[in-house]
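Researcher: Can you fold this with glycine in place?
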Amino acid sequence: MKKINVEEIKNKERFQNIKYLTKEEVKTALDFVITKIDENMEYFGEDKFPSASSINGVYDKKINKDWTNGFWTGMLWLAYEYTGKEKYKNLAEKHVVNFKQRLDDRIVLEHHDLGFLYSLSTVAAYKLTGDEFAKKVSIEATEYLIRRYQEKGGFIQAWGPLGEEKSYRLIIDCLLNIPLLYWTSEETGDKKYYDMAYTHYKSTINNIIREDASTYHTYYFNPETGNPVKGVTRQGYSDESCWARGQAWGVYGLPLTYKYTKDQDALNLYPALTNYFLNRLPKDLICYWDLIFTDKDNQVRDSSSAAIAACGIFEMNKYYEGPDKEIYLKAAHGMLRELINNYTTKDEKSSNGVLMHSVYAYVDNLGIDECSTWGDYFYMEALIRLVKDWNLYW
Ligand code: GLY
């Protein structure tokens, strides 16, 4: 692959001086998340889910038809693991049936986000309870997802009609969808899913990462030849800027592929992408929604990117043994402490979200400076990782 620059981490002292979160800080933060989950279980009931992002801090009730519904179910599974209380498991198990129904009825499944949906619902169910039905549904979801695999270019097409030129692209977010394929290979013994996931990952890292270690959001391929064409944004500020959540998906996507494949490039690229991310954090360590912005630009932050990046750092910390290992860990603790202290809804009684100040799609005027279901989920996942040796749902 092309040579990717690894920036030195700038201003290292600001990370070096961070103290690790104490068990007490983490427990208090998790207990707050649990109170929100308890309230929301009543509000959403058995078959409704929070909208992707909030409006004025409040999630609406929706049926299971968005790419984001798995995050609520994933939080229920995390709550079950954290508290041991059956009520979380009972509701999450009802969701498993709901996710099976969604698959059977083909409800808004013509996109690549089946990994987000099924890893956090049915795969989690199987891993935690051994439920064979949940395992079967997960494998069915994988089968549905691989219909989007394009031999020409070697990638899973994110959106749009299959093979259509203006939709013939991969997106960096999909690094979180391919663990469903790796997992299915492990469970079935059929390597074809692994091969598709791994080829998709290679097509991603070979194209979507710029030489300076920033990332494009999406990358087009030629449907006739499979040749790479160009990088284009969908949710970032511009084609040549670096959408913060895209970079965060990269920071977490690399360790997820490393976990399953032990691919050396994933390990080597991790400091490149992570340093680029860390070097563009404002003083409070919570990034603006696009990394092009600085304090002078008067832009909103995307707290969800901080939570995602923290999960990525915690995961890669299991494998990475480079000189900045401790800096990364402290950076993740620092970001998480800032989220705990200044980004949750603990003083916003009218909100039913957990983490404020997330941005869904600025360019679409969607979920700007709001709670997001993935922000809440990854915040909780990051916290759970600090209280137990957490077995990933991914
Ligand atoms: N995967 C869509 C997003 O990050 O907004």
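Model: Folded with glycine in place. The first helix runs from residue 13 to 16.
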